[in-house]
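Support case: user asked for a sample of complex input and structure output to validate their parser. Sending the pair below.
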Amino acid sequence: MELELAEEQQLVEEAQQGNLDAMRPILERYATPLYSTVILPRLGDAATAEEVLRDTLATAVEKIRRFTWQGKTIYPWLRQIAINKVFDVHRQAKRSRRLADAMVHEVAVVSDPESHADAQLIADQERAAHRERIAGTMDQLGERYRLAIELRLVQELSREECARRLGVTIGTFDVLLFRAVRAFRKQFGEAQ
Amino acid sequence: MIDDDSSVPDADAEPTPAELAHARRFAEVVDKTLLGRPPAAMSADDRALLEVATVIRAVHGNAELAAPARRSIVEDALRQAIGSASSSPSVVVPIARARARRWLPWSVAGATSLVAAAALAVLWLRPPAPVHEARLPDDQRSRSADALVGPIARERAGDASARIDEIFADRLDGFRARRLQGGKR
Amino acid sequence: MSMKSKAVVAWLLVALAACADRDPPPTTRTAEPTEAIDQDLMIALGQAKNFHHKAKVYMTDGNLVAATASVRQILSLAFPRGAPEADDVRNDARALLAKLLVSQGQLDEATRTVDEGLAQSERESFFVANLYTVQGEIHEARASALDAGGEAGKAAATDERHKAIASFDRSIQINERLQKKLMEAR
């Protein structure tokens, strides 16, 4: 952890005493896990996710006086603000997309709330829970669809390389990926 | 429009020309997104599928927040929360009042004795203190963003949002450095 | 020395000391450079950033009209007088605005947006070069539209393609000149 608990507590106390600038290292530290494990997987859109992150951090600074230090990292508090903001986005946009809706559901964070679980651990657990859901859905797809998603979206190989590995033309691979993502979307919705 | 409930054809099924065209378009959307340049506008169908792709990528750690974007978001959030209330204006004494204050003791001294008048003359005739033209470091100066941004490739012609983030973050560094050195706000 | 004389001397010393004290230290006489990055510049850049982000979210939702309106607001932001960033930010906003207009089929408005930017630019920059790139794209879009019209538009389409090439060439030339300048400055 770049930011030790004692240092985090000191920064929070400084912010609560009026030096809101003291929040900067905390925000810098937790912006990435909030974005990549809490917000983006629940929204699926990078631009909106960045807006929600900005809003989350601003709310945290504005409401820092209401935060009560309980001997553990501030990250769960920030995470809860982020989740509330994500819900707001879904409500406002009246989104009915299955995948986004499914991912909005709370992921049970298994760490003991009384422990000094650090933010990284919580973020790792959350990412693992998301991955498990994704893997569960991938397992239900046909082999070629699963491979198309795995090669292109997880390993991020070029279209040419993906097509070569699957022994098809680029045009055929494009169709495979298109169908694979559609199948994933449908399956994921049904799996919830 | 994609029908969520329609069955997805088998992997080996022959695509229709429409599906082929849609697949190619989606492949290009994914291509651009993977390069960090998602297209500015796209159909609702493509957007819905891209969201799925983005979630898969995000969960596998492939859609991280770039460091400049993170810094810029943090700064924005702080600015939004703190507002302008924290920025107390620097105390500037009006020139006329400052001059009057400077002259007042001399007037008193001059009126009380000749010695004071002579001292006044000596002080007055002394060459003025040199005005230092501050040599402003480049990074604290308002300047063209050319050196920062560099030539803009055609495929990034519409990426103004990413560029303004870069310009803002860079100028914020200069602005902060200047404030730390006691420069005016 | 009488008490009265002592009082006068003491008074004079105090007066002299006061004068010496009031002599401004050199730092207070340091000229404030007019080109310093100041709060007004940061506010204007921050506002431009917010409008771009708003536009980005609108674009993601497919609301191109709202995105266009948001980018347009950047053009009327007040920057500090003479700030070179103002030209750059406005030209970049114009480039995006023109592309948004093209995607809505408003080619004439897109052309106007680019032409105004080029006319108002006070110096060459990568952002001006980018405007020429977008100008080329507008000509290409016109050519495609003319192609769709059949044989009648063929000659005009060819003409538009030539104009597009000229715009792209112009953009390349500016980029080359500026890159050379930047290299020399290092």
